[in-house]
Amino acid sequence: MIAGDRGLSGAYNTSALRAGERLVQQLQREGASVRLYCVGKKAPSFYRFRGMDVQQSFMGFVDRPSFSDARLIASVVAAPFIDGEVQKVLLVSTRFHSAGSQGVETEQLLPLALPDPVLEDALSPSRVTRSSSPRSNSC
After folding, report:
1. Taking 50 as the threshold, does the pLDDT of residue 136 lie above it?
2. What gap in Å lies between CA 126 and CA 107, rounded to an integer?
3. Considering the entire predicted model, what is its pTM?
4. Run of H or E residues at 107
């Protein structure tokens, strides 16, 4: 779950937080055990207020995240998947489209999704043209 450190424009955080809450509830109804990892100051307090356990939270760098921040989060969140403790890693966040348009998105991060069959067909050896192979030095 990724949310902002500050209130921002109300719906920016609230929509994503509520979508995350609904997803957790749905997964639990289906019998799944859920581990909740939060990025940003707003998310942990939102979920803890609702009695939901937060496995770990990351705060203080949402305004200017660095690659090392992303690497730290990725390693912590991916570790249970790599160790076989969880079957899936999902991300809920707000996607910025424009100043007037943002939308909540839920994305599966792990396991990686299989390539689109159309893409597989386009990359098959029978579809690769000769121009993509190295040219000979003959004149």
Report:
1. no
2. 33
3. 0.76
4. strand 101-110
- Segments of 18-88 assigned E as strands: 37-39, 56-58
CB contact set of 115 (below 8 Å; sequence gap of 6+): none
Instruction: Please report which helix (H) or strand (E) contains residue 33, including its range.
Output: none
Instruction: Give 92's contacts (C-beta < 8 A, 6+ positions apart).
Output: 1, 2, 16, 19, 20, 23, 104, 105, 106
What radius of gyration do the chain's Cα atoms show? 20
Identify the pLDDT of residue 39. Answer: 93
% of the chain exceeding 90 in pLDDT: 55
For residues 20 and 30, give the distance between their C-alpha atoms in angstroms, rounded to a whole number. Answer: 15
Q: Helix, strand, coil % (nearest 5) of the chain?
A: 40, 20, 40
pLDDT digits (tens, 9 = 90+) for 64-120: 889 999 999 999 999 999 999 999 999 999 888 877 778 899 999 999 987 777 655
Q: Rounded CA gap, 37 and 69, in Å?
A: 14
The answer to whether 59 and 73 have CB atoms below 8 angstroms apart is no
Q: Compute the distance between CA of residue 105 and CA of residue 102 in angstroms, rounded to an integer.
A: 10
